[in-house]
UniProtKB/TrEMBL annotation:
Domain Beta-lactamase-related: 446-775
Family: Belongs to the class-A beta-lactamase family.
Native organism: Aspergillus parasiticus (strain ATCC 56775 / NRRL 5862 / SRRC 143 / SU-1)
Keywords: Hydrolase
Name used for this protein in its record: Beta-lactamase
Presence of the UniProt keyword Nucleus in the record: no
Gene3D superfamilies the UniProt entry points to: Chloramphenicol acetyltransferase-like domain (3.30.559.10), DD-peptidase/beta-lactamase superfamily (3.40.710.10)
Highest classification ranks of the organism: Eukaryota, Fungi, Dikarya, Ascomycota, Pezizomycotina
Molecular function terms, GO-annotated: hydrolase activity
Length: 810
C-alpha cells in the first residue's frame, strides 16, 4: 500500500500511533499463531496466543525502514534505476517478517513495515492467511485508517469490528461444521501449498501488472450476454452453451478470459500440456456473502471458500482458434469465453450454506478433496469490490496512491486489484496482478500478424527470414552478458582479446601505384566503440576510400572482407560509420568463452527465452529451410522473385553481424527478454538505451545519405529528429509524438527487416521482410503506419506492463 507524501517522514509518527491504537483495540492482531499437536490425536492445529516478549522484540508490530529511490511510475512502466518497481518488490528488505516464519511453530498474525522513500511510504503488511483473508485485511486497514485519523483516543465504535464480534463469528463458523470442530482451525500449511520464499533463477515465476480497459470489459460482457441470449433463441448454433442461463457478470467474463489466455500461453510454452484432456480453474468465494446471517461483513477472520471447475471443452479445442489480436473476438473465441464464464457462474451459484459447511468440515477432518486451489491450472481472486482506495488515513497521510500484491510465489495465480475509481459504473480500468512462469508470461502478451499478397506468396508468423543486420541486436545481448560476467570490458583495448587489432592502422589513401597508404591510430579500439560503429572500422560500401580498396583487391566475396580488412578509416571515437565492429564483437565472445558463437547464443540467449527456431546454418536445420520465405526485388515493373540466395548458404562461420535465420516470433522473444530484463541486468539494459557516441559526426546530416541509406539507418525515425547511437541500435533523443518515446533503440537488416524497442513504454516491434533493395520507401511507410497503429492501440491495453508487438510481411 503506497502513500504519496511530499515529506514522507511526517507520516511515520502517524502510522506508529495508529498501529499502537489498532493493537490496543484489536489485541488478537498482535498475537501469535501457535501450532500444536493434540494429545489425543496426530492432528496439528493452530491457535492464537498473546505475543511473548521475545517475539514482540524481534518482530515489532510496525518496523520502519528507509530506502533510496522513489515509488512513482512503478505500476505502469519499467522501473528505472532510481525507482522501486512493484514487480520486484517482494523481497525481505521491504517486508516485516522473514519468509521462513510461516514454517515456524510460532508465527505472528500480522505485522507492518513502513518503507520510507523519497516521495512516499510503501506500507507492506505480512499476515497469516490461515487467520486473515483479503476482505479481513480491508477491515484491518479500515480500522487502522480510523486510528490514524484520531491519533490519541479512537473509540471502539469508530472501528468496523471489535473482539466480541470477532469471537461470535468464529463460534458460528465452528458450529457450521459437521461434525462440529473443537476450534475453527486448519491443518498447518495444507491450504496454502506455495513456496516459503520466492524461487530464484531465470526460470523462477515472475509477476506482472496488467491493466485492462473498463470500457472494453463492459463491451465484452455485453457481447457475451448477447451471445447467450441469441443461443437461447436458437440464433447461434453452439453445442457448448447450455440454456437457460443467468446473466454473466464482469467477474465471470474476466475470469473466463484470463483462464483461456493463460491456458493457451501454457500450451505455447510447453506443448506437453496437451496431454491433459481438460483444464481446471479455481476461484475463492467469501463465506460472509454466502451465510450473512452468521457472519458480519467486517469479520476479519479467514472466510475463503474455494471452488474448482473443469473446462467444458478440451484443451486442444481451446487453442485451435487461438489468435493474437487486439480486435473484438470472433464467434468461435466468443463462444469459448462464454462457455467458460457460464461454467464459473454455475459453480458460484451452487456455493450455498451446505457448501460452506462441507468446506469447513473438510478442513477439520483433514479431508482436503475440496481444497484444490493450489492444484488448478489457473486461479483468480477478485478484490475489485474492496474499498481500499476510499479509506482516509487523516490529513497527514491521506488516501492510498496504490495497492498491489506482487507475490511471485503463487504461480498461475492472478488477483484483480481493488478499483481505483469506484462508482464509475465499472468503467474504470481493471488492474490484474498475475504470476506465471517466465516462458508462459512471454507467450501471453503479444500481437503477431503476417501478410503477403495471395497472388504472390502466403506468409505466416513462423516463416523463416534471413534477418541480416538485425542479428546485431542478438550479438549485442551476448556481448553485454560477457561484460556483466567480467569476461569483456567495454572500455579496455580490444587488442587484449583480439590481438589482430593491436597497433591499428588508418587508411589514408593510395600512392601513384595504387598501393594503399596508412598511418598509425593514436587511440585504442574499444568494445564500446565497436558496438556503436565508432571504432574506425567500416563496411567497404560506406566510404569511397574503402570502396576503392575493395575494388583494387579484386572485389573479394563480401563476407571475406569482414575479417580480412584489418585497418581503420578514422580515429576511434572520431565519428560514426556503419561497420563490421559487431561481427568482431561476436568473435570476441568466442575468444573469451572458448565456444562457437552460435553455441553460446543457444545456451545463454535462445534457451533462456525459449527461442527454438534460430540458426546460422540452414544446412543443420532443414525444418527451417523448408519454412524460409522467398526473396523479392522491387523493380520498375513491380515485384520479381530473386532467384539467387540473399546470403551464403551453407556457411562455416557464425556471423554475429548478419548471419542469423529466424522468425518474427523468435525475434520478438529476444526483444521481450531485453524488456523484461531476463537476458540482461537492469543497469545493463539502461546503459544500452543511452547515447554513447563521443562525436555524432556521421549521424548529424541525414541528407548526406541517399534515400535508401537514410531509410536503412534512420528506419522510421524522422530525419529532423536528433539521433545518437546506443549499444545495439540508433537512439532517438526526443519523443516521436504518437509513437515511440525518447531513447528508444532501432536498427534494420538488408532485406528490409526492422525492429525497435521502446524501453519507457515497454513496447517492442519487429517487422521482417525479404525484399530488396534495402531501405525500400514503401516498407518504411508501412513500418511507420504499423508503429502508429501500435501506439494508438496502447490506450486499449492501458498501461499493460512489458508489452511486445510484432509484425511480419513478405
Amino acid at each position: 500500500m503506497t502513500f504519496s507524501l511530499q515529506d514522507p517522514t511526517r507520516g511515520i509518527p502517524v502510522l506508529e500511533a495508529g498501529v499502537s491504537q489498532l493493537v490496543s483495540k484489536l489485541p488478537f492482531l498482535g498475537g501469535n499463531l501457535i501450532w500444536t499437536t493434540h494429545p489425543d490425536s496426530t492432528k496439528v492445529t493452530g491457535e492464537i496466543h498473546p505475543p511473548i516478549e521475545a517475539t514482540w522484540n524481534t518482530y515489532p508490530m510496525l518496523k520502519v525502514k528507509y530506502h533510496a529511490g522513489k515509488y512513482k511510475s512503478m505500476s505502469y512502466g519499467r522501473g528505472q534505476c532510481d525507482v522501486i518497481s512493484y514487480d520486484h518488490l517482494y523481497r525481505e528488505e521491504f517486508l516485516p517478517l522473514p519468509f521462513e516464519i510461516v514454517l515456524a511453530e510460532t508465527s505472528p498474525v500480522l505485522r507492518f513495515q513502513a518503507n520510507v522513500l523519497e516521495d512516499g511510504i510503501i506500507l507492506c503488511a505480512s499476515f497469516h492467511h490461515n487467520v486473515i483473508d483479503g476482505k479481513g485485511m480491508q477491515t484491518v486497514m479500515e480500522a487502522l485508517a480510523a486510528c490514524c485519523r484520531n491519533l490519541t483516543n479512537v473509540q471502539q465504535n469508530e472501528l468496523p469490528t471489535d473482539p466480541i464480534s470477532e469471537a461470535v463469528c468464529r463460534r458460528r463458523l465452528s458450529a457450521a461444521a459437521s461434525p462440529t470442530l473443537d476450534a475453527f482451525v486448519v491443518r498447518r500449511g495444507k491450504n496454502c501449498p506455495i513456496p516459503t520464499a520466492p524461487e530464484q533463477g531465470l526460470q523462477a515465476p515472475i509477476t506482472r501488472l496488467l491493466v485492462l480497459s473498463g470500457e472494453k470489459v463492459i463491451q465484452l460482457k455485453r457481447m457475451c450476454n448477447a451471445f447467450v441470449q441469441n443461443e437461447a433463441r436458437g440464433e447461434v448454433r453452439s453445442s457448448e452453451v447450455n440454456r437457460p442461463t443467468p446473466a454473466l457478470s464482469s467477474n465471470d467474463i474476466i475470469s473466463a478470459l484470463m483462464w483461456l489466455c493463460v491456458r493457451r500461453s501454457q500450451v505455447r510454452s510447453d506443448p506437453r500440456v496437451l496431454e491433459r484432456v481438460k483444464s481446471t480453474f479455481s476461484f475463492p468465494a467469501d463465506a460472509r456473502m454466502i451465510i450473512p446471517q452468521d457472519l458480519r461483513s467486517t469479520y476479519i477472520g479467514n472466510c475463503v471458500v474455494s471452488a474448482t471447475v473443469e473446462s467444458p471443452f478440451s484443451i486442444e479445442d481451446g487453442i485451435k482458434s487461438s489468435s493474437a489480436t487486439v480486435s473484438a473476438p470472433d464467434e468461435i473465441n466468443l463462444s469459448l469465453i462464454v462457455s467458460l464464464a457460464l461454467t464459473i457462474r454455475s459453480k458460484f451459484k451452487s456455493m450455498d450454506r451446505k457448501h460452506v459447511r462441507n468446506f469447513i468440515s473438510s478442513i477439520g477432518t483433514g479431508n482436503h478433496a475440496m481444497l484444490t486451489a493450489g492444484n488448478a491450472d489457473f486461479a483468480l481472486s477478485n478484490l475489485r469490490h474492496m474499498g481500499f482506495y476510499e479509506l482516509n488515513f487523516g490529513p497527514v497521510i491521506g488516501r492510498l496512491a496504490s495497492i498491489d500484491m506482487p507475490d511471485p510465489r503463487m504461480k498461475n495465480q492472478a488477483w484483480v486489484l481493488p478499483d481505483r475509481h469506484p462508482g464509475h459504473n465499472g468503467r474504470s480500468p481493471w488492474e490484474i496482478r498475475i504470476t506465471l512462469d517466465p516462458m508462459v508470461m512471454e507467450c501471453s502478451l503479444h500481437y503477431a500478424k503476417a501478410f503477403g499478397e495471395a497472388s504472390v506468396e502466403a506468409t505466416d508468423t513462423d516463416a523463416v527470414h534471413w534477418v541480416a543486420s538485425s542479428t546485431k541486436l542478438v550479438t549485442t545481448v551476448a556481448v553485454m552478458q560477457c561484460v556483466e560476467r567480467g569476461l569483456l570490458d567495454l572500455d579496455a583495448d580490444i587488442a587484449n582479446v583480439l590481438p589482430e587489432w593491436e597497433n591499428p592502422r588508418i587508411l589514408t589513401g593510395f600512392d601513384e601505384n595504387d598501393n594503399p597508404t596508412f598511418r598509425p591510430a593514436t587511440k585504442p579500439i574499444t568494445l564500446r566503440r565497436m558496438l556503436t560503429h565508432s571504432s574506425g572500422m567500416a563496411y567497404f560500401f560506406m566510404d569511397p576510400l574503402m570502396t576503392r580498396y575493395y575494388e583494387l583487391q579484386g572485389k573479394p566475396p563480401v563476407l571475406q572482407t569482414l575479417f580480412q580488412f584489418q585497418f581503420l578509416l578514422f580515429e576511434p571515437g572520431e565519428r560514426w560509420m556503419y561497420s563490421p565492429g559487431i561481427d568482431w564483437a561476436g568473435r570476441a565472445v568466442e575468444r573469451v568463452t572458448s565456444m562457437k558463437f552460435g553455441e553460446y547464443l543457444q545456451r545463454y540467449v535462445f534457451d533462456v527465452v525459449s527461442v527454438k527456431d534460430a540458426t546460422f546454418h540452414l544446412d543443420q536445420r532443414e525444418d527451417l529451410r523448408a519454412r524460409k520465405v522467398k526473396a523479392w526485388v522491387r523493380t520498375d515493373q513491380g515485384l520479381e522473385e530473386e532467384k539467387n540466395p540473399l546470403f551464403q548458404d551453407p556457411i562455416a562461420e557464425d556471423f554475429g553481424g548478419g548471419g542469423l535465420y529466424t522468425t518474427v516470433n523468435e525475434m520478438l522473444k529476444i526483444c521481450h527478454g531485453i524488456l523484461t530484463e531476463k537476458l540482461l541486468r537492469p543497469e545493463t539494459v539502461k546503459e544500452m538505451f543511452q547515447p554513447q557516441l563521443e562525436n555524432v559526426l556521421g549521424l548529424d546530416q541525414p541528407h548526406d545519405y541517399s534515400l535508401a541509406s537514410r531509410n536503412a539507418i534512420w528506419n522510421a525515425v524522422p530525419n529532423d529528429v536528433l539521433v545518437d547511437f546506443g549499444i545495439g541500435g540508433l537512439v532517438n533523443t526526443s519523443r516521436l509524438p504518437g509513437r515511440r518515446e525518447a531513447h528508444s533503440l532501432t536498427w534494420s537488416g538488408k532485406p528490409n527487416c526492422y525492429w525497435w524497442i521502446d524501453i519507457k513504454k515497454g513496447v517492442a516491434g519487429v517487422y521482417l521482410s525479404q525484399l530488396l533493395p534495402t531501405g525500400d520507401q514503401s516498407a518504411i511507410e508501412l513500418l511507420n503506419e504499423f508503429e502508429r497503429w501500435v501506439y494508438s492501440h496502447l490506450d486499449d491495453l492501458e498501461g499493460l506492463a512489458k508489452q511486445s508487438v510484432d509484425i511480419s510481411s513478405r
